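Deliverable D5.2: sample structural annotation.
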Amino acid sequence: MERSIPRASDGAIRPARWVGSPPGCSPAKILIVEDNTFTRHEIISILGASNLTVEIIEASDGMEALGLLLDQEDVDLIITDLGMPRVDGLNLLPAVRGEERFAHIPVIIVASKTEIQGKLPTFERGAHDFLTQPFYPAELIARVRVMLELRTHMLALQQRSIIDALTGLYSQAYLWEALGREIKRGQRYGLNLSCLMIDVDDFKSINDTMGHLVGDDVLRTMGRLLRSTLREYNVTVRYGGDEFVVLMQSTADGARMVASRIREAVAVHRFFPQDRRPNPVHVTIGVACAPASSIDDPHVLVEAADRALYRAKRAGKDRVNVTEFLNSRGYQRSSDSLP
């Protein structure tokens, strides 16, 4: 399985490789960081001979590993040598732990017997396990299996804490972590970031006249509609009550098109198939867009989308209002999209 990844310190390109069962079996992704080619291939060979299903990514030192991590979204385990040129294993640890999205990836340190005195500092810097060379293949496999099980449990706990139980969307607790990450990504690649604030019009009336259980069904359906309308890589959040937030790397025009598509999808959906009356559920959407390079405070973008939502509500509901920050001085323009 080829991937576009940074070059190694020796100039070679190291594509990811499958070991164990073939693709399609949801492999765990393991990053092996080792400057000794023989040792790196030995680890890969041992894992390949096991019954583990893994995808291997290789790096020759910590600097290359950090570049690879920035391009990977879902590394499950890092196995790293302790002593390496440029960035060694000991200095790789704080760099990994300092990034929120890497903070909970298990790390196994591999070191020679002469480096055993470095064991305690690695645990102090966030390593989960320490393996001395030469090691038995069965021991490496067992330790890797334990770390992958730990990763599975950690992801399950994290998932429960960031997923809204009613709608299946991300919860507000996840919003600020995701927003900070999207801002950094946008700044790195010179992209615009858009925030959509979505509010179900007159939701209180739906609760009051039809009951709260019906209101909950409306919110569940909203979650399904948003998931089916948006792309998987957009961050979709239940912000609270009947409000939802969507984050996307997009221009103002692109975000307006997406917001209009959401509004139209809600307007034509039959929330109550047994009811012949016109659909009572509509949404109003405020959109804020800015160059990621101009966003110093993540809250500013969400607050701008909230103000755009307020303007759309005052203008008559069931519509989209877009606020566009044109430069870092905060100059902005606002416009409405009518139904």
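Annotation notes: The two ends are 46 Å apart (CA to CA). The chain has ten helices and 13 strands.
The annotation will be released with the project's public dataset once the embargo ends.
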